[in-house]
Write a structure and sequence with these properties.
heterodimer; A: mainly alpha; 2 domains; 13 helices; globular; B: alpha+beta; Rossmann fold; OB fold (Dihydrolipoamide Acetyltransferase, E2P); six-stranded mixed β-sheet; Multiple sugar transport system ATP-binding protein (chain B); ATP hydrolysis activity (chain B); cell membrane (chain B)
Chain lengths: 299, 368
């Protein structure tokens, strides 16, 4: 019967003139074309630029300079400072998102009233535009009339112009915005842990903490790591929030440096090289996570 | 010592009773099987003993101490789940070691106990493997190992071999019995499989609709079922139940099935046990082995027609048609040759049971 049905389906497709293969190609080709034009081509083209002294703002002849851009960038202490700032930001922001997001997920994984409504409300920050969030938090942080200082009773504490505080202030905003993302994935992971495992652990006389560290955490780990991978990649290339909220050198992350180099200083070739360095770093970090993820998944 | 006592235990959801006035005492080292159809409350009862389910009224005592308000971890019992509930991310070794490590036992003590349990369950070669790589039978061995390793006061098992295939079930059955004897533990075991119940239990507790029907040794519940439910639930093939009327005829007694469709001669003792009103509406229960057949005409036997023959190798099950009713008989294999043949039947009085038609309760008449 199944064979007959398939035969019939094939005949019908043939009558229309399109085989399954054709239909598949019709769907795939535009995507491939799009990817090549907007992703692959610029990627390769900028790789070429990264070995030149090309400046997009002037009509000077373009010279091939070999690895000079890379060499100079890697020897530039300012670039290293940008990377350090970025690393600080990634650690604080992703760490905070995991702690807050996973904590919220643990709370929501119990029987509480209005669970659906609370979950939806918690997800709202994630759906807003980065620029809007940045501008709003700038207002919230305002030293003289911001509601945060008012609420915490900090007087006229300066968040965003304070070089020591600005990066953390931006990270807090990022945590507010993206902790719900970690929460959502964690919640999916937590609800996938079968309840009979908790019953077995209760029978086995495991305490709350022991159950959490030996059962809950290992079983949620794979999906939590996926959340961390996403958030690390995003945090590493954060641009909007720090750019909108603060102009402090202490918040000059690598993406902002890159933006300035490319579009304010018009060092197109050199900025292409920097972009490649960032790409390699992000790939390396992601790779470490994926390796760890595979190890966890094997269990 | 571990004696489990349930006193007037009740659990209900709204108006629906899950467990109703349950009284049951399980003695130290006893193997008690809770038996019943699905939804009869047997698993809920077991989970209530474990503390995985709350009860609404009544007392659960372990060694005389009320435990109904204690957490599972404070009751010192082990539980074997139907679907194993092994920790998927841990090896068999770590699964078995889990209850010991949870109570912070030393590494050496943990290792010694895990190895000992693995040896008694013959699973030493599986210790490094994760549950996902194990067969159902091996997973359940690990789960039983995890339950045994702590030497709990009592072992509670919820259909532990229910999801294994038939052959493996038989192996595990004898293994469970061996383990129970070797470990001297009190065991409460839930199943819907009466063969499992009869072969394992010291005593069987049969439940239906949340009500405990009968508690007794496998022999008792088989030979003296307390009501129609137990009579039909225990034994395979199922006990014959026929509406009958009793008629006295001078020297003897006759048992009339249907509208004079069959009249079995019976000893004169029967009426002595009967009150006047029960004469007319009785339920006769007789197991297939209590329906005796002979191939040719014999005094005291009545002719009946064979309707269906099921050859089962060691014996045959023959369905006899009596009016609108069927009577199943267990005969030596090959005795009834063909469907439609006439054979001669008699009831073995010692194996007959009489039940009240209305209540279904046994009239406790023992003849012969």
């Amino acid at each position: 019967m199944a064979g007959l049905a398939r035969l019939e389906g094939d005949t019908r497709a043939a009558a229309r003139g399109w085989s399954d293969l054709t239909i598949r190609n019709v769907f795939i080709l535009p995507t491939i074309a799009f990817l090549i034009i907007f992703n692959i081509f610029p990627l390769i083209y900028s790789l070429g630029y990264s070995f030149t002294d090309f400046r997009a703002s002037v009509n000077d002849p373009v010279n091939f300079v070999g690895l000079q851009n890379y060499r100079e960038l890697l020897n530039d202490p300012n670039i290293w400072r940008n990377f350090t700032v970025t690393a600080q930001y990634v650690i604080v922001s992703v760490g905070g998102q995991v702690i807050v997001g996973f904590g919220l997920a643990l709370l929501l994984n119990r029987k509480i009233p209005f669970k659906g409504l609370i979950t939806t409300l918690l997800l709202l920050p994630m759906m807003m535009s980065m620029a809007v969030v940045g501008l709003f938090w700038k207002l919230l942080y305002d030293p003289s009339w911001g509601i945060i200082n008012y609420g915490l009773g900090l007087g006229s504490f300066d968040w965003l112009s304070n070089p020591d505080m600005a990066l953390y202030a931006v990270a807090i905003t990022d945590i507010w915005m993206w902790a719900p993302f970690v929460m959502l994935l964690s919640l999916a992971g937590l609800s996938a842990v079968p309840s009979h495992l908790y019953e077995a652990a209760a029978i086995d006389r495991a305490g709350t903490w022991y159950t959490f560290t030996r059962i809950t955490l290992p079983l949620v780990a794979p999906i939590l790591i996926i959340a961390i991978i996403f958030r690390t990649m995003e945090a590493f290339k954060s641009f909007d929030l720090p750019f909108i909220m603060s102009g402090q050198p202490t918040t000059e992350m690598i993406s902002i440096r890159l933006y300035k180099m490319a579009f304010q200083e018009w060092q197109t070739g050199r900025s292409s090289a920097l972009a490649y360095i960032v790409l390699i770093v992000v790939l390396a970090i992601t790779n470490i996570y994926v390796k760890y993820l595979n190890k966890v998944k094997e269990r | 010592m571990a004696e489990i006592a349930l006193q007037d235990v009740e659990k209900y959801f709204g108006d629906n009773y899950v467990i109703r006035k349950l009284n049951l005492t399980i003695a130290h080292k006893e193997f008690v099987v809770l038996l019943g159809p699905s939804g009869c409350g047997k698993t809920t009862t077991l989970r209530a003993i474990a503390g995985l389910e709350t009860i609404d009224t009544g007392d659960i005592r372990i060694d005389g101490r009320p435990v109904q308000d204690l957490r599972p971890s404070d009751r010192d019992i082990a539980f074997v789940f139907q679907l194993y509930a092994l920790y998927p991310h841990l090896t068999a070794y770590d699964n078995i070691a889990f209850p010991l490590r949870a109570t912070r036992e030393s590494k050496a003590a943990v290792d010694a106990q895990v190895q000992a349990v693995a040896k008694s369950l013959k699973i030493e070669h599986l210790l490094k493997v994760r549950p996902s790589a194990l067969s159902g039978g091996d997973m359940q061995r690990i789960a039983i190992g995890r339950a045994l390793v702590r030497r709990p006061k009592a072992m509670l098992m919820d259909e532990p071999i229910g999801s294994l295939d038939a052959k493996l079930r038989e192996d595990m059955r004898s293994e469970l019995k061996r383990l129970h004897i070797e470990n001297d533990s009190t065991t409460v075991y839930v199943t819907h499989d009466q063969v499992e119940a009869m072969s394992l239990a010291d005593r069987v507790a049969i439940m239906n609709d949340g009500v405990l029907q009968q508690v007794g040794t496998p022999g008792e519940v088989y030979q003296y079922p307390t009501n129609l439910f137990v009579a039909q639930f225990i034994g395979s093939p199922v006990m014959n139940i026929l509406p009958v009327a009793v008629r006295t005829t001078g020297p003897g007694t006759e048992l009339v099935v249907g509208n004079n469709d069959a009249v079995f001669a019976f000893s004169a003792d029967l009426p002595k046990h009967l009150s006047q009103k029960s004469y007319e509406s009785l339920m006769l229960g007789v197991r297939p082995e209590g329906v005796l057949l002979v191939p040719e005409e014999t005094p005291g036997y009545i002719p009946v027609k064979a309707h269906i023959i099921e050859p089962l190798g060691a014996y045959d099950i023959v369905d006899l048609k009596i009016g609108d009713e069927y009577l199943r008989s267990r005969t030596p294999s090959g005795m009834v040759k063909r469907v439609g043949d006439t054979v001669w039947a008699r009831l073995d009085e010692a194996q007959t049971h009489f039940f009240d038609t209305k209540s279904g309760d046994s009239l406790n008449i023992r003849l012969g």
